[in-house]
Amino acid sequence: MAALVTDCIAAQLSLVTLLLCSSLASTAQHTLGAGTSLSVEDRPQPFLVSPDGTFSCGFLQVGDNAFSFSVWFTASQNSTAVWTANRDAPVNGRGSRVSFTRDGELALADANGTMVWTSRTGGVSAGRRGLTVSLNNTGNLVIADPSTGSTVWQSFDWPTDTLLPSQPFTKDTKLVAGYYSLNFDNDNVLRLLYYGPDVASLYWPLPDLNIYAAGRTNYNSSRIAFLNNTGVFLSSDQLQAQATDLGLGIKRRLTIEQDGNLRMYSLNTSGAWTQTWSALKQPCHAHGICGRNGICEYQPSLRCSCLPGHNMTDRADWRKGCKPLFSIGNCSQGTAPPSPEQFMFVKVPQTDFYGFDLAFNKPVTFEQCRDTCLNMCQCSAFSYRIDGNGFCYPKGLLFNGYTSPNFPGSIYLKVPRDFNVSAPLIAAASAAGLACSPNDTVKTVNPDVYGKAPRSSGKWAYLFAFAGVLGVLDLLFIATGWWFLSSKQSIPTALEAGYRKVMTSQFRRFTYRELKEATGNFKEELGRGGSGVVYRGVLEGGRVVAVKRLAVDVTVQGDEEFWAEMTVLGRINHINLVRIWGFCSERKHKMLVYEYVENQSLDRHLFDADGDGKAATLAWSERYKIALGTARGLAYLHHECLEWVIHCDVKPENILLTREFDAKISDFGLAKLSKRDGGAGVELTHMRGTSGYMAPEWALNLPINAKVDVYSFGIVLLEIVVGSRLQDQTTETGERLQLPQIAQALRHVLDSGDVMSLVDARLQGQFNPRQAMEMVRISLSCMEERTCRPTMDDIAKALTAFDDEDEHPAYHS
Q: What span, in angstroms and rounded, lies between the C-alpha atoms of 225 and 592?
């Protein structure tokens, strides 16, 4: 019966897709003449549709008020772009226009008339008449001269990150995503390349293998590759990759993504993409993910960490790696090298760094390998592998690090004998104020130390502790100085400049005029809250940002929230937290500049406040992904910083979603720091948070700790399951449900196992019951007395345990 229902649904979806394609084909053309245009306000009408309706071309929404001119599969749920003209410079949702000019040039203009992108065919076609632009059934956007049948320009010659079936990939083309690219190398082999700011390295085919062992050949003068209609990716270097759903009649794409992996996807009948092949089976095989001195680990999701004795170089960008908090001396010519007796080694187990080997040794003993590195001034570490024999690899630089339980060896880091591996981390962090050292920033290890440390190590620990105290005093000095700057007291100009230089060393300081111009005089509002309004802005260079402008009449509370956001957001880095890039503070003008998150906030997708049915598109897999990402972000704040960070206002409005529905927690204006001393909590000057999500201890005037966020997360988690506001739930008599009644209902669900009655009906049974039961169990535990509530770390681990068990939830009839 269930199978029959599933078949019926699939047939209905196919019919809907067919009708949709037919409708688009009837309302939009696949060929246009010169002098035509389309305004962004005309969406969802496409600019062009392929004759068979498979592809559409036009304005594709990539943010709340940001659009790109793209080509996409018409039937895909999220309109995944397969080609984009302005990938790095989205245009405004009002006033932007794409035009096919009379001289045969395709041009994209922003709201202010600025030309963002052109096909650059105006000069080529000067004097010609009758040029056309069309979208083919292959997804190729073409400018052609019908009188000669010649192609003037085509999008297939300018791929972005995706290759389509029948689209040729040649020696002159490449796919690019961030620092990663796919192209034919000088040896005629198709390769994946990391091209970062410091180094460039090839990582696919795996560099440990020679060309022939990897199944390739460099006797390949044609240098051409293509994805055929059956799901086979072929290259003239003898690469042959096959999709797991090999066969005709399936719409596919091959895409390089921001994590450096190359993946093949198939479009299923529900309009979702299914991965059917990937170049890298181990994500950490991609180079450059964690930067120099950084270690990549996959368990079960990818994360980065620093070597012992290292801190992140830039807490906003992992790709810049980690910097050492010690020195192993000067190895320049004419300088006496340090004595080997000055060093010892710290073991980092089952870890290796690819490349930059100083020597290739035959099998040697561990002691011989250690002595080799000790006697080489340039050696910063050595790798020792035990796989039948002992293989020694002294390292000059430490790039492309990874940890794997299957790696048969370890890395041994060279450090001064008088260096305490852990003390400098604490001292350096204290000197910087709030310096989060997350689980994916500084690796927590109990290192095996090879070499006898001198008795004077206690002296160094004392010095580092003393440095930490000085750091705290520096912070007090800076904070006091800034208070004077903010007050009406007269301060000498030179002293004021000095204070500002110190305060802006961690962030970019914008002027009020810069942000006024970037936001078009604060024209495009993205959202508003109790502490201010958020606007869309575009900085010089095309970067789209969100600018939060605090209310003009901010009181002391407003200033407190402003500096809380400054100190917290500017010093933390996590994939599930919104980053801050800069700030403005000019008299009454106080603003924060955030990264722009494209897909609005969770409440817009979950609660369907406008009644447009948009929330129904939030599939179960996306809901679970959002719940897990939010849990991980809060766990990072609570457990992986040197000081705890309490958000104090966890709610759907403060959970932003990227284009891929990754959760990013925003609005740290209500954040507060509390010491890791196990105390009862912190004292706050006023009640914070949003009604319906506030823990009971707020009303009871009890000391506040991180468990207030746990309570709020429990409410949000349950709302993700049921698809509506918890405070809107009522009894049969119309009375609003109270917390004890909600808890009793959840216990009944857990006891009976009947979670179907609780899950959002708009999902029509398409959900994972085991995941749903776990979410209900966690939600109930979050509503307990605060001493009985779990930690966010426990919650993140519990959700992770069910993360990858069901990619495609079964239908429950």
A: 47
**Could you give the CA distance from residue 399 to residue 295 in angstroms, rounded to a whole number?**
9
Domain ranges within the chain, ordered by starting residue: 2-155, 163-282, 294-454, 459-506, 507-596, 601-813
pLDDT along the chain (813 residues), means of 10: 40 37 52 88 89 94 88 91 91 91 89 87 61 94 90 94 95 92 91 85 87 87 92 94 93 94 94 94 90 88 90 86 86 70 91 84 84 89 82 90 88 88 35 32 41 38 45 46 41 37 53 91 82 85 84 48 59 81 80 87 79 63 94 87 72 90 80 41 55 81 81 95 86 76 90 91 90 95 90 93 64 41
- Superfamily of domain covering 2-155: Bulb-type lectin domain (2.90.10.10)
Instruction: Judge whether 2-155 and 163-282 match in fold.
Output: yes
Residues belonging to the active site: 649
Phi-psi region of 753 (alpha: psi -120 to 50; beta: other; left: phi over 0): left
Assign domain 294-454 one CATH number from 3.30.200.210, 3.60.21.10, 3.40.50.1360, 3.50.4.10. 3.50.4.10
Q: Is 693 exposed, middle or buried (0-12, 13-18, 19+ CB in 10 A)?
A: buried
Q: Is 548 annotated as a binding residue?
A: yes
Among left, alpha and beta (phi > 0; psi -120 to 50; other), residue 685 is: alpha
* Unique residue bearing structure tokens 């020792």: 384
The CA distance from 554 to 251, in Å, is 54
Cα separation, 638 vs 663, whole angstroms: 17
Strands (E), 13-140: 31-33, 36-39, 48-49, 55-61, 66-73, 81-84, 91-92, 97-100, 106-109, 115-118, 132-135
- DSSP string computed for 284-295: GGSTTSS-TTEE
436 half-sphere exposure, CB direction, 13 A CA radius: 28
Distance between CA atoms of residues 130 and 20, nearest Å = 31
The token pair at 96 is: 């932007």
CATH 2.90.10 fits 163-282, yes or no: yes
* From the candidate CATH numbers 1.20.1440.230, 1.10.510.10, 3.30.1330.90, 1.10.10.10, the one assigned to the domain spanning 601-813: 1.10.510.10
* Distance in Å from the first CA to the final CA of the chain: 8
The token pair that represents 320 in the structure block: 């810049």
Element holding 587 (H helix, E strand)? none
pTM: 0.52
For residue 353, give the H/E element and its range: strand 351-353
**Topology of domain 507-596, per CATH?**
Phosphorylase Kinase; domain 1 (3.30.200)
Residue 521 region by backbone torsions, left for phi larger than 0, else alpha for psi between -120 and 50, else beta: left
Question: Largest Cα–Cα distance in the chain?
Answer: 89
β pairing state of 150-154 and 190-195: unpaired
CA 253/CA 255 separation, integer angstroms: 6
Question: What tokens does 529 get?
Answer: 């809250």
C-alpha span between 273 and 275 (Å, rounded): 7
**CA distances from residue 773 to 198, 711, 712, 765 in whole angstroms, order as listed:** 47, 18, 19, 14
Sign of the dihedral through C-alpha 365, 370, 373, 374: negative
Determine if the peptide bond prior to 44 is cis (ω within 30°): yes
Backbone φ, ψ for residue 682 (5° rounding): -125, 155
Identity (one letter) of the amino acid at 594?
A: Y
Q: Name the token pair of 698.
A: 């707020």
